[in-house]
Amino acid sequence: MTGIDDRSEDQMAAAFAAAVYTPKQADKSVLSEFVTRLKVDQVSVAGILQESRLDPGDKTRTIDSVDISTGHRIPIKRPMSSDMDCGLDVANLVETSTILRDAIMAHPDLVVIEKFGDQEQKGEGLLDEIMQIIAEGIPLLIAVPEPALEIWRCQCGGLGAILPYTQDAMWDWWCGLSNG
Fold first, then answer.
1. d(CA 109, CA 86)
2. DSSP 8-state class, residue 46
3. Is 50 exceeded by the pLDDT of residue 171?
4. Cβ neighbours around 82 below 10 Å, total
5. What is the pLDDT of residues 53-73, one digit of tens each?
């Protein structure tokens, strides 16, 4: 992965960043721990985290979108009868977009989104809300899978910071942005 060293100051100064994780990255709790730390510091943070769970009797995991502001959970991916089925609940994905529209209206200090997923990579899903957050100038931190980094860069015009998926990198970016 290329670093931000080869990027112009204008690109780095944009108020959004992609925290890039690898498919094999074991610790997916980094983003939620970052959000917890922000809340402890009284930062107004909104957006969506994802939580994976295995309910009793299920053989596959359910993924919920969790509203950072309220804790409201929306199941976006459910176990399916066939391994061929994705399980994405498009109706609930639409409900999830409401969380981001509410965040835009509230204009928090920071919006955090986990993640730039398959739907967003295809120009669908939550992409309109993500781009509106950027256009409104609301600081944004979004988790981006490494294989989708080039798609992300194209979607946002090559602007914004690219960070490793670590607490330190996220915190350094946030401190630099909030102090600027």
1. 34
2. E
3. yes
4. 7
5. 776 776 677 888 999 999 999
